[in-house]
Write a structure and sequence with these properties.
Distance between the termini: 64 Å
Structural class: alpha/beta
Number of strands: 20
Shape: globular
Number of helices: 15
Largest sheet: 9 strands, mixed
Radius of gyration: 24 Å
Length: 459
């Protein structure tokens, strides 16, 4: 009989009360933890709808006890008083006030891996994990498996844990899209792990690339089967000997599962070509090879993947050619928030790109290769948003690329006006920002919403 004894009679802190924090609180109430043993810690001075949320919880769980609250600047000052600290992924483990108590810290991801009784297929990588996880999910669904898609996609992961009937989920699968934030310090045992790629990202959160890389490699620990991109082994990020007692297969342009010149091969044998696949671009084809490896492990016929791919169009904001307006192709790649992913987009569209929109939020990225790619592919117009527009201006001009027009702005409307004026008919204006946009926008969707809004107004 599985139970939650380790949480009983413990002082529990929920670190940050956003969507995941609310889910964590409901989980603890559901498993019978007394509200008096739970404290909510949040750096905000006020949370909208807090009273209504607590009233709902009290009614749902028949509790009249007020929860313990610490808000504002002092919310991290008494972490030493708690037995268990449940941290949301957005807060860095390396925060000066949090790191000393890392042995007390857990997460929704850790609790889910500890208690879920079904089979977990974990997917991670700097780029491509959302699309690949969704494709695996759609393939398993098409194969009539009882499967859920969780993680970065959708609701907090504990919402999918049937805490009252844990053993009822034994015959289920979840495809779990796992971020580097979730992987930091995670200890797990799971069925399959798929590691797509590792590029420099989230360096500020992880306090350096080595910590970020190690978090990603941690995906492979505790897995029964590991599916790993060939280039990760080529870069010597780890050796097979370091991941002991685990089956590892490789995919990419080399290995057991490969994509070459429009065709998929498994262990040297042709399987099918890409002629009927709706999804586009080389990097997606490479990641499809990893899905074939999942199917081999699960004994799912390859034709299931092939048939799924005839209708699977991928996810929004990933190199989508939404419109041709004013003779210009306006392409949405707003989710590209690392230099590597934007370079990938530039390589995909090549010299058809006439204008590119870039952010430059300072997250420790190195932009030398991106600037080289811009110059090499002859991009004529670069729109730069804050934080550090002057740095990219100076860096591009330092390449003696004086023919490039650089427009610095914090106004999307003015940026679209510039692009419409200077992008040649028949060419591409690419929204692929190479960095997050937190300095001006709350997320990549907002960037695209404004992009298309002002295109409609101007054209």
């Amino acid at each position: 009989m599985i139970n939650f004894e380790r949480f009983q009679n413990k002082k529990i802190a929920i670190l940050w009360y956003g969507r995941e924090g609310k889910s964590s609180l409901q989980f603890f109430l559901k498993i019978g933890i007394s509200p008096k043993n739970i404290t909510i810690l949040d750096g905000s001075k006020k949370i909208e709808g807090l009273a209504e949320n607590f009233e709902y919880l009290n009614q749902t769980f028949n509790s009249d006890t007020e929860f313990n609250l610490t808000f504002g600047d002092t919310y991290l000052d008494k972490l030493n008083t708690f037995d268990i600290i449940v941290k949301t992924p957005g807060i860095s483990l390396y925060h000066d006030k949090i790191y000393p108590y890392r042995d007390k810290i857990t997460s929704q991801a850790q609790i889910f891996f500890d208690y879920y009784q079904g089979k977990i297929i974990a997917v991670s990588g700097t780029k491509g994990k959302s699309t690949t996880a969704t494709l695996i999910y759609e393939t398993l669904k098409y194969a009539k498996k009882n499967v859920q898609l969780i993680g970065n996609i959708g609701n907090p992961v504990l919402d999918y844990l049937d805490s009252n009937h844990l053993e009822s989920q034994k015959n289920e699968y979840v495809v779990f899209e796992v971020s580097s934030y979730m992987l930091e310090g995670l200890k797990k045992n799971n069925y399959i792990s798929v590691l797509l790629n590792i590029y420099a990202d989230h360096i500020d959160w992880h306090k350096g690339f080595e910590n970020y890389r190690d978090a990603k490699i941690n995906l492979l620990n505790g897995s029964k089967h590991n599916i790993v991109r060939d280039e990760i082994l080529e870069k010597n990020y780890f050796t097979k000997k370091e991941i002991k007692d685990t089956h590892i297969c490789t995919f990419g342009h080399d290995g057991e599962y490969i994509y070459q010149t429009g065709k998929f091969y498994i262990k040297g044998k042709f399987v099918f070509d890409d002629s009927s696949i709706v999804l586009q671009w080389e990097h997606n084809m490479i990641n499809i090879a990893s899905v074939l490896a999942v199917c081999d492990i699960m004994e799912i016929p390859y034709k299931i993947v092939q048939e799924t791919l005839t209708t699977f169009r991928g996810l929004p904001h990933r190199m989508e050619n939404i419109w041709i307006y004013g003779g210009i192709s306006w392409i949405d790649d707003a989710i590209s928030t690392t230099p590597e992913s934007t370079i990938q987009a530039i390589q995909t569209f090549g010299k058809q790109i006439d204008t590119i929109f870039l952010w430059w939020t300072d997250r420790g990225y190195i932009f030398d290769d991106l600037i080289k790619s811009i110059v090499t592919h002859g991009i004529k117009n670069v729109v730069v948003f804050p934080d550090s527009g002057k740095r990219i201006f100076d860096a591009i001009k330092g390449k003696d690329a004086w023919e490039i027009k650089i427009f610095q702005t914090n106004d999307m409307k003015e940026a679209v006006k510039f692009a419409y004026k200077h992008t040649k008919i028949g060419k591409i204006c690419l929204l692929s920002t190479a960095s997050p946009s937190y300095s001006l926008r709350k997320n990549f969707e907002e960037k695209w919403d404004l992009f298309q809004k002002y295109i409609k107004e101007l054209v």
